[in-house]
Write a structure and sequence with these properties.
It is a single chain. The chain has one domain. The longest helix has 16 residues. The radius of gyration is 18 Å and the shape is globular. The two termini are 26 Å apart. With 114 residues, the protein is mainly alpha-helical. Pfam families: Methyltransf_7.
Length: 114
């Protein structure tokens, strides 16, 4: 859980540090396309989480020592849409005009073979 907390803090800092409002014309709009998950969804239930489980399995098979696996880090964090909305609003420079969640699995025409 410690790594997840660090990634969340990095996300919060990135959104507060990057003052994108200064780059927009007054009254302009910015489209943000972000990776997000529904509140309470475990990572093991999303495609990225499944991919990470496979990577972990491969790393465990390849590693000579367990600390090699423990030291490996992929900097990814998928915040919930509620959390993203809160972070954007806390930034103070933006208002959310529209927020949508899209489930990419609905676009698939068949099962995913992993």
């Amino acid at each position: 859980m410690e790594r997840t907390d660090k990634k969340l803090n990095n996300l919060k800092n990135d959104l507060s540090f990057l003052k994108r409002a200064k780059e927009l014309m007054s009254g302009g709009l910015m489209v943000m396309i972000l990776t997000s998950i529904s509140e309470g969804t475990p990572y093991s239930q999303i495609p990225t989480g499944i991919a990470y489980d496979m990577i972990a399995s491969i790393l465990l098979d390849m590693a000579i020592e367990e600390d090699q696996v423990d030291s490996f880090n992929l900097p990814f964090y998928a915040a919930s849409h509620e959390m993203m909305a809160g972070l954007v609003e806390r930034n103070g420079d933006f208002s959310i005009e529209r927020l949508e969640l899209m489930n990419p699995s609905e676009l698939l025409e068949g099962p995913v073979d992993i």
